[in-house]
UniProtKB/TrEMBL annotation:
It comes from Jiulongibacter sediminis. This is Short-chain dehydrogenase. It holds the Pfam family adh_short_C2. InterPro entries: NAD(P)-bd_dom_sf, Sc_DH/Rdtase_CS, SDR_fam. It comes from the Bacteria. PANTHER family: EG:BACR7A4.14 PROTEIN-RELATED, ZGC:101858.
């Protein structure tokens, strides 16, 4: 098992990608600290994984003492902390006309600032255990969609933080920091968003090639597979790296023939 006896804190792990990462980590022998906002969803996952493999704390990561409480829980329950997965995030639509300063600050606080606070509070444990950090970003970090302005800014900042700390912390302490930028993932939350937008229930079965050459979206478990590799010792000395898990190139993408001539 690739994560045997590792203790891993995963924020936003009651649902979606975070939940898939938590389940994959336990299958690989890890103990996990679960976190989220929906206490019922957390209790269900905690019951599934079992108290011998998990602990949970329902708390908003932007609360002043949230980072300290989560790290303390890991140490109290399992005596150490080997890895941190900064997965919790808010995905909200906004553009240049709707992104106020207060709105942007709120998004940055959740998607970026809280992650930095968790790294800082985890650092002593990570140094002691030669641990690592995995940040979950988004391909929107590379520029993003017009109506995902604040979200894209936050994920771009997260990517810069990953590269900065991945170099400095590894050189000084041996603590690796990496990031996964997922593409479009079919999570329960994505299904709820599309339902609220009035889309049909099986919208994901009929996607344009421009968005999904594979004719489907990623499953959360596929993102989790990449996470397990980066969290494990088999990753070796890889640090300050960003893994784009997408089904088309972000740069130099080949447009479908139907687009030829229409955007010249």
């Amino acid at each position: 098992m690739r994560l045997k006896d590792k203790v891993i804190l995963i924020t936003g792990s009651y649902t979606g990608i975070g939940k898939a990462i938590a389940k994959s980590c336990v299958r690989e022998g890890a103990k996990v600290i679960l976190n989220g906002l929906d206490d019922q969803a957390g209790e269900q996952l905690y019951a599934e994984l079992g108290p011998e493999n998990s602990a949970m704390l329902t708390i908003d990561i932007t609360e002043e003492d949230a980072a300290e409480k989560l790290v303390d829980l890991a140490v109290e329950r399992f005596s150490k902390l080997d890895a941190l997965v900064n997965n919790a995030a808010t995905i909200v639509s906004s553009n240049i006309r709707t992104t106020s300063s207060d709105f942007l600050r709120k998004v940055l606080d959740i998607n970026l600032v809280s992650g930095l606070a968790l790294i800082e509070k985890s650092l002593d444990q990570l140094i002691e255990n030669k641990g690592n950090v995995l940040n979950i970003g988004s391909i929107n970090a590379w520029g993003g969609e017009p109506d995902l302005l604040a979200y894209s800014i936050s994920k771009g900042g997260l990517m810069t933080m990953t590269r900065n700390l991945g170099d400095s912390l590894f050189r000084e302490y041996g603590v690796r920091v990496n990031q996964i930028n997922p593409g479009w993932v079919l999570t329960d939350n994505e299904m709820q968003i599309k339902a609220a937008q009035g889309m049909k229930s099986d919208w994901y079965r009929d996607l344009p090639d421009i968005f999904a050459p594979a004719k489907r979206l990623f499953a959360p478990e596929e993102i989790a597979a990449g996470a397990v590799f980066l969290l494990s010792d088999e990753c070796g000395p890889v640090s300050a790296q960003v893994m784009d898990l997408e089904q088309f190139p972000m740069i130099g993408r080949n447009l479908p023939k139907s687009w030829e001539g229409s955007h010249k």
